[in-house]
Amino acid sequence: MSVFHIAFIAHDRKKDEMVNFVTAYEHVFHGHQLYSTGTTGLRIMEQTELNIHRFMSGPLGGDQQIGALVAQNKLDLIIFLRDPLMAQPHEPDITALLRICDVQGIPVATNIATAEILVKALDRGDFAWRELPDKYKPVEGVE
To answer: Would you kindly state where each structural domain of the chain is located, as residue ranges?
Structure first.
């Protein structure tokens, strides 16, 4: 089984939903390298036996820290449960994170339906596309 690098981010009104989701799929996440923004990671660890590397809270730079991993092609999947009905003071950071995921081709689930599809694919072993031959990988330093 390949080890994948997965990040969890959830806006305040989505944290309970994230905890419930990760708890339901805890068996899938075991054995992978997990990351999260601060409070989301703490809440998940309180309810599961998962070990998560926690960054700062999203508004304090955690989104950017996760974005840095994406920019270095060190993440394989992000589950980012966003609250589309609440304005976020750090919206530029969120937009930048989503943009770099598009640039690097990193799948991002922004709602529970998409998260479920991606996690089921992960469980089936359908993430082999992340192990593309070098000829399909972006060349460093080339825009």
So the answer is: 32-61
- Binding residues, by number, are 11, 15, 37-40, 57-58, 90
Nearest-10 Cα torsion for 55, 59, 60, 63: 40
Rounded-to-integer distance, Cα 109 and Cα 5, Å: 14
CA 103 to chain centre: 15
10 neighbors 17 (Cβ within 8 angstroms):
yes
Query: Quick one: which of 27, 5, 10 has its CA closest to 75?
Result: 5
Catalytic residue among 63, 83, 126, 134: 63
Whether 93 is catalytic is no
Is the backbone of residue 2 left (phi > 0), alpha (psi -120 to 50) or beta? beta
DSSP string over 80-97: EE--TTS--TTHHHHHHH
| CB atoms near residue 25 (< 10 Å) | 18
52-93 tens-digit pLDDT = 999 998 878 888 999 999 999 999 999 999 987 776 766 777
